[in-house]
């Protein structure tokens, strides 16, 4: 029996491609209060680009700014092969009212279906396919196979350290084994081995056939084959004689699998990798050590922390031990749909570790850092506990933490090598700099091991606050030609390219190095620098620089910080606050409103301007600046309305669980009250 649920993926020769069909349908969409953006080019790479394109289209076509819209961006476009075949679900992003967008998109074009992932997700467009009575696709139906694999490989429960999967039916497991039974095809095997090994179902015969093909084809670069993440756990589980040789060649990336199968051999490898500071290896080392050598998790963490310190391992390794310790003493909730209180045990454990004298100071410092934005959440959760003694104990733990927090955090800072969005999340902590902050930032700039991202972050903060000195410039001079002239994408950060900032500093100081840097900027290559070259005009501003920058701003060229630079430059020349410079540009011909709105809020505090490409609705910094602009009685009603509109659209009240660091319920209620108190102004807008 065959269940017909749609069309097969395969198309006869001469038939339209998926891309052509979808584009033809896309052109039919749009109407009252709903618009669709044209298919993307590489210039629309992210959701922020999509929202900017929508604002520009609305302004050009006279569409109401409150209209809803849908689009896909270039990353989503990867769902299409070069032939136009749809090789994965096409994610359709949107803005405005979710119900309006859902109605505007409808069911999709004939032969396709749209999945609505709700007000907090993107829509997905995919082919409809044919399955048999067991829910299995024809192996020749590429789209059907892809959809089946996506279904069986989706965890039913996922935490930071593990994933659980629904069991396969006998028919599903047999179907997967059949795909691995013919001649070895490593590219295909990746897809079919994973769902089997997620259930520990890869057989010794299958691994024995895959292993030599993998090692032969990918000799010297074993991690280049994605299937290793399924085959290595199977080899460990099956105690294959070649597994340790393979694990050693894979290196620290194999840490998670080795930690899942603790043994003296795995402990030895994990320790060697952990001492290099690799986060995954550090956590794996703890798990193996805890399982084999020390059943008490606190004593295990203390021993490994002391060894890391003695071996002068990178500071970030202490954070890895902390994470592993927290995992060992708490049950982590599902990371996808967990209520805030589900994280209470983990947050409380972190606060307790900051004051636990059994732990070495470096580990307590790591705990204090991790708990920096969570004390309020723990207090709220403790207040909801029904056990009075348990609540009092939790509140006492918070009080002990707050007593020692400042001492533990003095002279510390974030991990500069991690995800740059994490640095953006804590940017609001640096709105003012303490003497300890200044020392830490300067020490990082002087440290040869600090990478480009870290230099960009630290130098921006020092320069914006007026704390950057000649010593900082001198520390970076040996590195600027070899390292800082490399491309570094800063479109979605709160800091500029470090060479932009360094050039501004050199000009402000009148240092001789400024001449060499400006000469480099004036050369035609490399091409990456041209879009940001004019941002260096903020250093030692002159009327000539202001005029050149203004000419670009009104030319309609792609803005990557140019208007903000001009506003800050003009404010320095005129000796006024940049807010008043930006305010005068409202309704100025040649100035795009959506860019000006971002700039107006971004310069609210000239000691820490926000350089992000768009107003970031998940950011504490942008929320506070929007409030300040809305409430600044020295500004015009038009300028204040811009701040209020940005505040209304911020996720603090719309999707508070997406704001980072996480908010307390009290902060969310305060935000709602702030907006409600200005409801009359909202109605007037």
Provide an overview of this structure.
- Strand 5 (112-115) and strand 6 form a beta hairpin.
- The longest helix has 22 residues, at 388-409.
- A 5-stranded mixed beta sheet has the order 2-3-4-6-5, with helices on both faces.
- It contains 34 helices and 9 strands.
- It is globular.
Mean pLDDT metric:
93
Contiguous helical run count: 34
Globular, elongated, flat, extended or rod-shaped: what is the shape? globular
Distance between the termini: 61 Å
> Care to count the β-strands?
9
Instruction: Indicate the low-confidence ranges by residue numbers.
Output: 1-13
Q: What proportion strand?
A: under 5%
Q: Major beta sheet, specifics? A: 5 strands, mixed
Helix content: 40-55%
Alpha carbon gyration radius: 28 Å
Query: What strand order characterises the main sheet?
Result: 2-3-4-6-5
Structural class: mainly alpha
What would a concise description of this structure say?
The protein is 53% helix and 5% strand.
Which key terms come to mind for this protein?
two-stranded antiparallel sheet, 53% helix, disordered N terminus
């Amino acid at each position: 029996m065959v269940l017909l649920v749609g069309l097969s993926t395969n198309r006869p020769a001469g038939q339209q491609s998926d891309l052509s069909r979808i584009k033809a349908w896309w052109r039919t969409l749009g109407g009252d209060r709903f618009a669709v953006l044209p298919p993307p080019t590489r210039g629309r790479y992210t959701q922020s680009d999509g929202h900017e394109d929508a604002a520009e289209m609305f302004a050009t076509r006279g569409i109401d700014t409150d209209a809803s819209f849908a689009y896909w961006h270039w990353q989503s476009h990867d769902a299409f092969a070069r032939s136009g075949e749809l090789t994965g679900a096409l994610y359709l992003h949107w803005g405005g009212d979710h119900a309006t967008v859902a109605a505007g998109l409808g069911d999709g074009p004939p032969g396709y279906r749209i999945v609505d992932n709700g007000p907090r997700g993107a829509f997905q467009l995919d082919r409809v396919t044919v399955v048999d009575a067991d829910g299995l696709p024809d192996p020749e139906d590429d789209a059907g196979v892809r959809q089946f694999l996506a279904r069986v490989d989706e965890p039913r429960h996922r935490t930071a350290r593990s994933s659980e999967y629904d069991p396969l039916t006998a028919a599903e497991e047999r179907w997967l084994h059949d795909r691995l039974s013919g001649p070895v095809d490593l590219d295909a095997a990746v897809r079919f081995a994973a769902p089997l090994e997620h259930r520990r179902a890869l057989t010794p015969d299958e691994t024995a056939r895959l292993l030599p093909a993998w090692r032969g084809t990918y000799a010297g670069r074993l991690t280049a084959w994605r299937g290793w993440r399924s085959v290595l756990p199977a080899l460990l589980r099956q105690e294959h004689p070649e597994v340790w040789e393979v694990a050693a060649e894979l290196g620290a990336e194999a840490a998670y699998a080795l930690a899942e199968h603790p043994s003296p051999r795995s402990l030895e490898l994990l320790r060697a990798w952990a001492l290099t500071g690799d986060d995954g290896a550090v956590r794996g080392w703890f798990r193996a050590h805890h399982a084999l050598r020390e059943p008490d998790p606190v004593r295990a963490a203390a021993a490994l922390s002391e060894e890391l310190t003695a071996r002068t391992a990178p500071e970030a390794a202490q954070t890895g031990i902390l994470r592993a310790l927290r995992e060992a003493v708490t049950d982590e909730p599902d990371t996808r749909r967990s209520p805030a209180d589900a994280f209470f045990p983990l947050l409380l454990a972190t606060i307790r570790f900051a004051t636990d004298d059994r732990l070495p100071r470096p580990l307590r410092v790591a705990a204090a850092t991790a708990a920096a934005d969570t004390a309020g959440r723990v207090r709220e959760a403790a207040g909801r506990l029904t056990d009075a003694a348990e609540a009092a104990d939790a509140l006492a733990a918070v009080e002990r933490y707050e007593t020692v927090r400042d001492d533990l955090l003095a002279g510390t800072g974030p991990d500069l090598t991690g995800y740059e969005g994490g640095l953006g999340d804590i940017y609001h902590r640096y709105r003012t700099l303490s003497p300890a902050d200044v020392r830490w930032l300067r020490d990082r700039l002087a440290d040869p091991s600090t990478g480009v991202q870290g230099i960009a972050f630290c130098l921006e903060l020092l320069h914006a606050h007026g704390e950057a000195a000649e010593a900082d410039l001198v520390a970076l001079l040996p590195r600027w030609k070899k390292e800082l002239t490399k491309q570094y994408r800063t479109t979605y950060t709160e800091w500029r390219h470090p060479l932009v900032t360094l050039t501004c500093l050199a000009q402000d100081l009148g240092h001789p190095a400024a001449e060499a840097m400006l000469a480099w900027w004036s050369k035609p290559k490399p091409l990456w620098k041209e879009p940001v070259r004019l941002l260096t005009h903020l250093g030692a501003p002159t009327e000539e620089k202001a005029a050149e920058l203004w000419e670009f701003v009104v030319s309609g060229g792609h803005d990557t910080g140019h208007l903000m630079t001009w506003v800050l430059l003009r404010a320095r020349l005129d000796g006024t606050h940049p807010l008043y410079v930006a305010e005068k540009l409202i309704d100025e011909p040649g100035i795009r409103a959506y860019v000006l709105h971002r700039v107006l809020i971004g310069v609210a505090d000239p000691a820490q301007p926000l350089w992000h490409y768009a107003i970031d609705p998940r950011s504490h910094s942008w929320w506070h600046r929007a409030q300040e602009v809305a409430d600044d009685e020295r500004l015009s009603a038009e300028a204040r309305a811009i701040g209020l509109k940005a505040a209304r659209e911020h996720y603090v009240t719309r999707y508070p669980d997406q704001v980072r660091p996480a908010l307390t319920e009290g902060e969310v209620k305060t935000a709602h009250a702030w907006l409600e108190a200005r409801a009359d102004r909202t109605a007037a807008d």
